[in-house]
Design brief:
Order of helices and strands of chain B: HEEEEEEEEEEEE
Largest sheet of chain A: 5 strands, antiparallel
Shape of chain B: globular
Shape of chain A: globular
Strand content of chain B: over 45%
Number of strands of chain A: 7
Strand order of the largest sheet of chain B: 1-2-3-4-5-6-7-8-9-10-11-12
Largest interface: A-B, 29 and 43 residues
Distance between the termini of chain A: 4 Å
Structural class of chain A: alpha+beta
Number of helices of chain A: 3
Number of strands of chain B: 12
Oligomer: heterodimer
Number of helices of chain B: 1
Radius of gyration of chain A: 12 Å
Helix content of chain A: 25-40%
């Protein structure tokens, strides 16, 4: 697995930034399962998201795009709307060992 | 229900809807925009043969804005005036620092207590709530003052501590179920009366959708009653 790091600030300055690969988002402020469930559901409802996995242990959400690409600005805004703080977005290439 | 004793009794028993952990106290943890939490809790006081049902709800208006509603209903004993005042509160998270292992937040509470029995008028209330969540522990502190119209003013102070008992370490992925132990201290004050001190010990089981919780609250002075509570919350 090869991971490429994209600073979140760079994403914020490029509205419409998209990712064709699965992404992992480091999120601060996540506490218990009951509190984070709303974030998981909101991400799952995004039209370009196929799957959502949450890790409270790693403070990370992993998103797989549905077909085309992920709208990263919309992902970031969804996390903010849920009351949490996105810190870093990593694009994860599962195709490469 | 708006007699001085009735008001302080309901204030003492009424749990506060929160999107997070305490049984009877407020918390400043987030509720996602458009999200709803509904809580139902029954409290039994054997000494007075009194049983209350409290129904509450919270709605996430925006990331830092939450609307909270709640009202207690007396199941036993029967008779008139079973509804207590309906609390309508708006929580604004004024300060927030999120970290990898938790969060620190401070919220402002404003709203009113609205009588449901056609007696009296709405009473404004305001307060503060703070939450510190770190690792397996959550601390919540809150205070709420109610300037009652036609009755003595009242206030409540709460301090709550929650500790995640299980699992000790979370799974790498997925939102599993968790067990929390709860310890709370509360003060219920009403003008012209001595403040009532209470301590609560409780236990919660939760997953991504549900919280099932129960606890026992002991008056440390005043009526010296014991209150048994059991309830559930659902997150939509």
């Amino acid at each position: 697995m090869q991971t490429r790091l994209f600073p979140l600030l760079a994403l914020l300055t490029s509205l419409g930034a998209q990712a064709a690969l699965p992404v992992e988002v480091t999120i601060h402020g996540m506490t218990c399962a009951f509190c984070v469930a709303g974030l998981e559901r909101k991400l799952q409802r995004l039209p370009d998201v196929a799957t959502v996995e949450v890790s409270l242990a790693q403070k990370t959400v992993r998103l797989t795009p549905k077909g085309g690409t992920l709208d990263l600005e919309r992902v970031r805004q969804t996390i903010v709307d849920a009351g949490f703080t996105p810190v870093e977005i990593r694009s994860v290439d599962h195709a490469q060992p | 229900m708006r007699s001085p004793n009735g008001v302080i009794l309901l204030a003492a028993l009424f749990p506060r809807i929160t999107d997070a952990m305490p049984l009877r106290a407020f918390a400043a943890l987030p509720l996602e925009t458009g999200g709803t939490v509904v809580q139902v809790m029954t409290t039994r006081t054997p000494e007075t043969d009194d049983t209350q049902l409290a129904v509450s709800a919270a709605y996430g208006v925006a990331a830092r804005h939450t609307l909270m509603l709640g009202a207690p209903y007396r199941l036993e004993p029967g008779g008139p005036d079973r509804w207590g005042d309906m609390d309508v509160l708006y929580r604004y998270t004024a300060w927030q620092i999120d970290e990898a292992e938790g969060t620190r937040r401070l919220g402002v509470l404003t709203g009113a207590a609205i009588p449901l029995d056609d007696q009296g008028s709405a009473s404004p209330q305001a307060g503060l709530v703070g939450t510190w969540f770190q690792g397996r522990q959550e601390w919540d502190a809150s205070g709420l003052y109610r300037a009652d119209n036609g009755a003595p003013d009242s206030a409540r102070l709460d301090l709550a501590w929650q500790y995640r008992l299980l699992p000790r370490s979370r799974a790498d992925w997925g939102l599993g179920s968790e067990w929390y132990g709860i310890l709370e201290w509360g003060t219920r004050w009403q003008e012209h009366q001595n403040a009532l001190q209470q301590v609560t010990v409780g236990l919660q089981w939760l997953n991504a959708r549900w919280v099932v919780e129960g606890g026992v609250t002991q008056d440390l002075n005043g009526p010296d009653d014991t209150h048994w509570s059991i309830g559930a919350r659902a997150h939509f």
